[in-house]
Amino acid sequence: MAPQTLLPVLVLCVLLLQAQGGYHDKKRMQKTQLSPEIKVCQQQPKPYLCKHLCESHRDCQANNICCSTYCGNVCMSIL
């Protein structure tokens, strides 16, 4: 491949990576994959709950479960 064509191909690759959220977003998404015990929440949480993230049910207080929402995994009441 000629050197004149390598630069446009490289620029195109960088632009495509940015359009998909970038390298760091892909790494973060791999870390935030749902564990087998964490389900999607039945209700949307209040915005203040998004500050208290969890990784498993053990991270939550009594009568709360860890579930997945738009802002990450949060503890929500089961009552």
TrEMBL record:
GO cellular component, one term: extracellular region
Keywords: Signal
Signal peptide boundaries: 1-21
SUPFAM superfamilies: Elafin-like
Keyword tRNA-binding in record: no
Pfam families: WAP (PF00095)
Ranges of residues in domain WAP: 34-79
One Gene Ontology term of the molecular function aspect: peptidase inhibitor activity
Protein known as: WAP four-disulfide core domain 10A
Organism listed in the record: Pongo abelii
Highest classification ranks of the organism: Eukaryota, Metazoa, Chordata, Craniata, Vertebrata
